[in-house]
Amino acid sequence: MPVNVLLVEDNPADARLIRMALESVESDDFILERAERLSRALERMSRGGVDAVLLDLSLPDSQGFDTFAKLHSHAPDVAVVVQIPPPPTPF
C-alpha cells in the first residue's frame, strides 16, 4: 500500500527537487501531493488519508514554529518532517 505524502512547500523549485528525489527511489510506494499554503494543507488533511507531511516552516500564510504547531494540533497522529534551510556557507 503506498504512503501518501503531503508536501507543504510554496517554492516551486524546492518542490520540484523534493519530487525528483522521491521519484528517484526505486519504489512506487509514494503518492505525493502538494499544498503551497498551510491553510490548503489543513483542508487536504481534514479529508484524511495523509500518512506523512514534508513541511516548510516559511509559508505565505504561516511562519516558524507556529506552522508546525498548527499542523500538528490539526492532525497529531500524522508524521511530520520539518524542512529547514541548509546552514550558510562560509566565504
Protein architecture, described:
The protein is of the alpha/beta class. It has a single domain (3-83), classed as Rossmann fold (3-Layer(aba) Sandwich), CATH 3.40.50. 34% of the residues lie in helices and 29% in strands. The chain is built from three helices and six strands. Strands 2-1-3-6 form a four-stranded parallel beta sheet, with helices on both faces. The chain has a two-stranded antiparallel ribbon with strand order 4-5. A hairpin with a 2-residue loop joins strand 4 (58-59) and strand 5 (62-63). 18% of the residues are buried.
N-to-C series of helices and strands: EHEHEEEHE
Number of helices: 3
How do the strands of the widest beta sheet line up side by side? 2-1-3-6
Can you tell me the CATH architecture? Answer: 3-Layer(aba) Sandwich
How many beta-strand elements? 6
- Give me the oligomer status: single chain
Integer average pLDDT = 92
CATH class: Alpha Beta
Rg estimate, integer Å: 13 Å
Q: Helix coverage percent of residues? A: 25-40%
CATH superfamily: Response regulator
Main sheet record: 4 strands, parallel
Percentage of residues in strands: 25-35%
Question: Which shape, going by the Cα principal axes?
Answer: globular
